[in-house]
Amino acid sequence: DQFERCQASHKYKKLMFSLTFFHSILLERRKFQMLGWNVQYPFNDSDFEVSENLLALFLDEYEDTPWESLK
Q1: Chain CA centroid to CA 9, Å
Q2: How many of the other CB atoms lie within 10 Å of CB of 51?
Q3: Can you tell me the distance from the alpha carbon of 49 to that of 51, in angstroms, rounded to the nearest whole number?
Q4: What does the pLDDT look like over 29-38, one tens digit per residue?
Q5: Residue 34 half-sphere exposure, CB side, CA atoms within 13 Å?
Q6: How far is it, in rounded angstroms, from Cα 38 to Cα 34?
Q7: Cα 32 vs. chain centroid, distance in angstroms?
Q8: For residue 62, pLDDT beyond 80
Q9: 3-class DSSP state of 63
């Protein structure tokens, strides 16, 4: 199961939801281009996958959640 790949699955599920929600907002904002943003950045699926992998890595490697690094 996707959500069981991380040892801290409870935290992972909640943070993964936040990451997915943020990703969907960025994808939806594409149709407005730079309106309301300082610069245009093409946040795509590969960026999402890297973010997902880093989230699992940080949660597995550190006992306390490294919030500063996850920002």
Answers
A1: 15
A2: 17
A3: 5
A4: 777 776 666 6
A5: 3
A6: 7
A7: 22
A8: yes
A9: coil
Contact between 65 and 59 under an 8 Å Cβ cutoff? The reply is yes
Whether the pLDDT of residue 15 is over 70: the answer is: yes
Percent of the chain exceeding pLDDT 90 equals 4
Quick one: pLDDT at residue 40?
A: 65
Cβ neighbours around 43 below 10 Å, total: 15
- Per-residue pLDDT for 65 more than 70? yes
Which structure tokens are listed for 59? Answer: 């949660």
CB atoms closer than 10 angstroms to residue 58: 19
Are 10 and 60 in contact by the 8 Å Cβ rule? The answer is: no
